[in-house]
Amino acid sequence: MTSWAKCPSPMVPSSPWTMTTPMASARKGEAEVQLGGGGTQWGIGGGANSGEGKSGSTNQPSGGRPPARPRAYHGSVDVNATLAKSQLNTIAEEIIALLAADPQATVRVSVEISADFEGGVSDTTKRSVSENATNLSFKSSIWE
């Protein structure tokens, strides 16, 4: 039997950078569809075949227990150094903001930078990067 559950409306976070996640989806106007095979599919709810308003409709699959929902999200991505500003902004808007919109989520974001210098780093670059890392409160900034 197909069952439906409405999702809460997303909230706008005060800051996309300060919030980890037991994450539930918060897609406005969409409903979660529990499929017979145990999978989940997202789609617009409220249609004639949605199951809303039908007697005997339930939000639990047969067996009486709701399906287990993911309780954490972990993601990593390589970012092109030339396009880092744009790509990091896109990640903030399209991933971090969605996670932070869930009032139950605590989102932590970590940035890792690695740079190799074939002929060795210049003193000017080393000094500037070290000072900037200190001013930006980097937890670690190590030269090898």
What does this structure look like?
Strands 1-2-3 form a 3-stranded antiparallel β-sheet, with no helix packed on it. It has 144 residues and is an alpha+beta fold. β2 and β3 (40-44) form a beta hairpin. The protein has one domain (1-137). Helices cover 21% and strands 10% of the residues.
Low-pLDDT parts are 1-55
Q: What is the succession of H and E elements?
A: EEEHH
Largest sheet descriptor: 3 strands, antiparallel
Strand arrangement across the biggest beta sheet: 1-2-3
Q: Approximately how much beta-strand content do the residues carry?
A: 5-15%
**How many DSSP-defined strands?**
3
Q: Report the helical percentage.
A: 10-25%
* Shape by Cα distribution: elongated
Number of helices: 2
**Span of the ends, CA to CA:** 61 Å
Instruction: Determine Rg (CA atoms, Å).
Output: 22 Å
Q: What is shown here, in short?
A:
The protein is of the alpha+beta class and 144 residues long. The protein has helices at residues 84-100, 123-135, and strands at 3-6, 30-34, 40-44.
